[in-house]
Design brief:
heterodimer; A: mainly alpha; 9 helices; 0% strand; B: mainly alpha
């Protein structure tokens, strides 16, 4: 639109990006699988908003495309696919025995976010002076928080959301530094996200049928030190 | 001839196997499509070696995204070769457990899609598109890993998917930073060759960041230590022909993507690609060599050996110099061919004994002479015994390392290779030649007959391992030189 800085658009973008970091913290802290999914949907909407605002700011058709793709695929198709493929049980699960308790997890998450800031700033500065916005450091922070969620969670849905949050983080940073990547690539990445949901849904269903739980992260029978597996356990 | 035609046979086969005709139909059509593919890729490789770069017929918009050079032709050839032998091995192996026709169709549909996604990696030249097909390889192979549907197989598949996709998230950000680096350097086409051309202008900090993110992200799928934890699980729980694909060529084709970054990094002063490769490579070789000693499961033994070999290849690239790079290419070929043979041998052993435990298999040579001979041959070949392919390539790498004056790194590499040799041979030797202590373990004394197609696949896979240990044919030598040049530039 205009090449000079537009404070309103920049501030609105900062708000959207900042709120998406907050949702990432929420996903780390929430025990209810359903609540995690809702927070993830909110985060995707904020990502779409950020893409649209940056699109308006730089008059980039491609960024509008990112916004539309995000609006359609994550809030609508992902929950639908999950309902189709995986057992309904994954929504109702609560994580009681977490690897870390919530305050510790949040503290580590905070440290990660601060670390991401120090990594992200020099990166954003190296790209182009007009990109000293919040997208790159916060994108990295969201990516790290997604990875952190993956390491401390055991429930299938929380793990799946951790993966999708990582992708959201990569996109939050990506729309600022690589804004004209190409529409085909964008669409392909979105489709890929849906394939991930589909395959993991199928796997969770198989796990639940075979083992009777969706706490997939707790599976740990494959180890080097394992002696002969007990036969009843192996066949159950 | 368009390059893209090589992607057609597996796609067509994936559709054809879904027709419910009979149990042999799906297996047969897969073998046929793999053979057709092998011929097509053989022709393509010949063109590349002869210096005639194949033209794209699809128009300018597409042709910039599709390109084949020496390095990609080498990887394509390996994928086609191993997909063929693994398809032949699958024919008898999968029928042995007598699964339902529907389950077999699912297996072969996934098999063909998996082969398709791997073939797409070297063909595509646009990094983000490559990232997408790397994702596809994970997703197409996930259901192959969990095929047995046991508790262990599901656990392995889950770990595989979660860790690979986690790495993919990091790598996606890496590819975006790479794109940002290209734009900050004044623009250019975002393809592998475009990056190499633009490399001297790119800002080193962005390039270094992108390289590390991609090395860590895709390194997860290659099985570099410390991101390797899923690999022994997935590569041991999947059906054996799938293990041959996973260990033999999937890791290699992902490593190929990392190798593509080296010419870009070499062109930028202040970028340290070689040091990182050396560090990650040596840590992988060392860790895998010691873990090899304490495995309890013979398929995990070969899986850890994959981690070791990926480390050797990366170390060779890190040593630098055209001789070491040639050695790395040779090692890629030798490892793919030998490792697929090893997993066929492991599959034959599993059919003959019904167990994956090393301790439970004794006197295999009596129970099934073919499986026993194959296992001992595979063990010797993968550990690097003299007249075989891996020995020749490892020797080339060590010699090149010494010639470069990298005594410390080469010394470590040699030590780890020797430790791994004893690790592999101790286990394999005990399985094949020692006799069981108790009488009850020798319950079945009659020899086991391996299905014909499994024996055929074992022989077909053994021939190149033997031949390449003695000499490297001229066309292959040209291809290896071309491929090594693509890494250097």
């Amino acid at each position: 639109m205009n090449d000079a800085t537009n404070p309103l658009l920049e501030n609105l973008n900062a708000l959207a990006v900042g709120l998406s970091l907050l949702t990432a913290f929420g996903i780390v802290a929430m025990r209810q699988a359903r609540a995690c999914l809702n927070l993830f949907i909110m985060q995707s909407l904020l990502l779409a908003a950020s893409a649209a605002l940056l699109g308006l700011r730089y008059d980039s058709l491609h960024l509008y495309g990112v916004a539309v793709v995000n609006l359609i695929s994550k809030p609508i198709i992902v929950p639908w696919l999950l309902r189709k493929t995986s057992p309904a049980e994954i929504y109702t699960r609560r994580e009681i025995d977490q690897v870390l308790n919530i305050p510790t997890a949040l503290l580590i998450a905070l440290a990660l976010a601060v670390g991401a800031y120090f990594v992200g700033i020099p990166l954003a500065n190296a790209v182009a002076p007009e990109f000293r916005g919040p997208n790159v450091p916060i994108g990295i922070a969201v990516l790290l928080l997604g990875a952190f969620t993956l390491t401390v969670r055991r429930e299938a849905l929380s793990l799946l959301i951790g993966l999708l949050v990582m992708e959201n983080g990569a996109f939050l940073a990506g729309i600022a530094i690589a804004r004209d990547l190409g529409m085909l690539v964008e669409l392909a990445i979105a489709t890929d996200g849906l394939v991930i949901v589909f395959i993991m849904g199928v796997l969770v269903r198989a796990v639940q049928k075979q083992i009777g739980t969706t706490a997939v992260g707790a599976l740990a029978s494959l180890k080097e030190t394992r002696a002969t597996p007990e036969p009843d356990q192996a066949r159950s | 001839m368009s390059i893209l035609i090589i992607l057609l046979p597996p796609l067509v086969a994936a559709l054809l196997v879904c027709i419910p005709i009979g149990k042999r139909w799906a297996a047969g059509i897969t073998v046929v499509s793999c053979l057709v593919n092998l011929i097509l890729i053989g022709q393509l490789t010949q063109q590349v070696v002869a210096g005639r770069i194949p033209r794209e017929l699809l128009g300018a918009a597409w042709s910039k995204w599709i390109a084949v050079d020496g390095l990609s032709a080498l990887v394509l050839l390996l994928i086609a070769l191993i997909a063929t032998t693994a398809a032949i091995f699958s024919f008898g192996y999968m029928a042995h457990a007598n699964p339902t026709a529907k389950k077999l169709r699912l297996y072969y549909a996934n098999y063909n899609l998996f082969v398709f996604s791997m073939l797409a990696i070297p063909v595509l030249a646009e990094p983000t598109l490559v990232w997408i097909v790397v994702e596809l390889t994970t997703l197409c192979s996930a259901l192959l890993v969990s095929f047995d549907n046991t508790r262990e197989a599901l656990e392995a598949a889950w770990k595989y998917v979660v860790l690979s996709l986690m790495g993919a998230g990091v790598a996606l950000f890496g590819f975006m930073v790479l794109f940002a680096a290209l734009r900050a350097g004044g623009g250019g086409t975002y393809t592998w060759t475009g990056l190499v051309t633009a490399a001297p202008r790119l800002p080193a900090i962005l390039l270094q960041t992108a390289f590390l993110l991609i090395l860590v992200g895709l390194g997860t799928k290659v099985g570099l230590v410390p991101m390797h934890t899923w690999l022994p699980d997935a590569h041991s729980q999947a059906p054996s022909p799938v293990c041959a694909l996973l260990s033999g060529i999937e890791t290699t084709s992902i490593l190929y993507v990392i190798l593509r970054l080296f010419p870009v990094m070499h062109a930028v002063p202040g970028a340290y690609a070689d040091t990182w490769a050396l560090v990650f490579g040596l840590i992988s070789v060392g860790t895998a060599a010691f873990l090899l000693l304490q495995v309890k499961d013979y398929k995990r033994l070969f899986a850890f050996s994959t981690v070791e070999h990926m480390g050797i290849i990366l170390t060779a690239i890190g040593l630098g110099g055209s001789a070491a790079e040639y050695g790395a290419m040779q090692q890629i070929v030798a490892h793919s061919l030998t490792k697929s043979f090893c997993f066929f041998a492991a599959g034959a052993t599993l059919l003959a004994t019904g167990t994956r435990e090393i301790a439970a298999v004794r006197g295999l040579i009596r129970r099934s002479p073919i499986a026993g001979a194959a296992l001992i041959f595979g063990g010797l070949a993968i550990a690097g015994a003299p007249p075989l392919a891996v020995f020749l390539s490892e020797f080339t790498i060590l010699k090149a390392g010494l010639a470069r004056g990298q005594y410390v790194a080469t010394g470590f590499l040699a030590t780890f290779i020797v430790i791994a040799f004893f690790g592999v041979m101790a286990h394999v030797n005990r399985m094949v030649f020692t006799w069981p202590q108790t009488e009850s373990a020798t319950a079945t004394n009659e020899t086991f007959r391996l299905p014909f197609s499994c024996r055929l696949a074992l022989i077909l896979a053994a021939v190149p391992v033997l031949v390449l240990g003695v000499y490297v044919p001229k066309p292959l030598n040209d291809l290896l030189t071309l491929a090594a040049a693509a890494v250097t530039r």
